[in-house]
């Protein structure tokens, strides 16, 4: 049987971990990338229990040399790359008048340049396998807020970048899409809710209800729901779908 190989960044927790666990059903090997080795090993154990091989690569994707290292280690372990899920992201959610140049750079370096460099490094292998790439955007790309300016701006950049790769992907037979989740319960989301609760002097539960009321949605999403969508996007059933942004947000974005 031909081995099929997927690289998942941000696999140490949250949506990335859920994606790796879900893809263990469809791929014979998963490459798990993030900084925290202990958490990555936990994901790897779950992936192996799901029937797939797992390779842990702990590094900082903001380092310019990291992307080449990920691709080199993946190809030397498994010889091919069928899917790349660029999920890692940690853009500071701060007010546009307060966020510093350094904080903008941190967000851009990881989410935009980390994903861009990895996609370029993996392109040859993806072309050889007629593979798939998923970029991770977010609702803020189309609903930018003063209170989290970099999140919206960088997600909008990601969507534009994905379109640029998709145009070449039509020629090279590499499928490129963006998945755009609404508010989903992960470590990052909980940290944002805890910060809102502290700022308003209310409980985290009350902050959650506040958020749902303002967003006009019935509940938060789960990392597993986002993972299921990504698994579908890179499945053979969706191979003709490319250059799109797929939203999964409980109906939060009301615009056409
Ligand atoms: N949760 C939501 O509501 C939501 C909504 C819209 C979009 N998103 C997007 O979905 C993605 C995942 O979010 P999440 O909620 O699952 O966040 P999370 O739980 O905070 O996970 C973020 C992941 O990124 C990794 N990461 C952070 N800095 C890194 C670095 N310098 N190098 C390598 N890996 C790094 C983290 O691992 P280490 O710390 O181990 O490095 C972690 O695995 C992000 O791109 C986020 O913007 C999330």
From TrEMBL:
What SUPFAM superfamilies is this protein classified in?
Answer: NAD(P)-binding Rossmann-fold domains
Q: State a single Pfam family of this protein.
A: adh_short_C2
Q: Which InterPro entries match?
A: NAD(P)-bd_dom_sf (IPR036291), SDR_fam (IPR002347)
Q: Spell out the Gene3D superfamilies in the cross-references.
A: NAD(P)-binding Rossmann-like Domain (3.40.50.720)
From the Swiss-Prot or TrEMBL record, give the protein name.
Short-chain reductase protein NovJ
Q: Which organism's genome codes for this protein?
A: Methylobacterium frigidaeris
What lineage, starting at the top, does this entry show?
Answer: Bacteria, Pseudomonadati, Pseudomonadota, Alphaproteobacteria, Hyphomicrobiales
């Amino acid at each position: 049987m031909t081995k099929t190989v997927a690289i998942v960044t941000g696999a140490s927790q949250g949506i990335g971990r859920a994606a790796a666990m879900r893809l263990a059903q469809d791929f014979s090997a998963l490459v798990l990338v993030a900084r925290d080795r202990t958490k990555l090993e936990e994901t790897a154990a779950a992936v192996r229990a799901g029937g797939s091989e797992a390779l842990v690569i702990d590094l900082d994707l903001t380092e310019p040399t990291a992307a080449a290292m990920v691709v080199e280690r993946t190809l030397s372990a498994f010889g091919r790359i069928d899917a790349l899920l660029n999920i890692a992201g940690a853009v500071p959610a701060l007010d546009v008048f307060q966020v510093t140049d350094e904080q903008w750079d941190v967000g851009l370096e990881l989410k935009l340049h980390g994903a861009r460099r990895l996609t370029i490094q993996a392109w040859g292998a993806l072309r050889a396998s007629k593979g798939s790439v998923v970029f991770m955007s977010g609702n803020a790309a189309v609903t930018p807020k003063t209170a989290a300016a970099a999140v919206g701006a960088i997600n909008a950049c990601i969507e534009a970048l994905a379109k640029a790769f998709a145009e070449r992907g039509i020629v090279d037979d590499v499928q490129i899409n963006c998945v755009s989740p609404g508010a989903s319960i992960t470590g990052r989301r909980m940290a944002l809710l805890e910060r809102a609760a502290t700022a308003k002097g209310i409980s985290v539960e009350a902050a959650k209800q506040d958020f749902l009321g303002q967003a006009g949605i019935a509940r938060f999403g789960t990392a597993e729901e986002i993972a299921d969508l990504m698994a579908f996007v890179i499945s053979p059933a969706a191979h003709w779908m490319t250059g799109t942004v797929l939203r999964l947000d409980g109906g939060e974005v009301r615009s056409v």
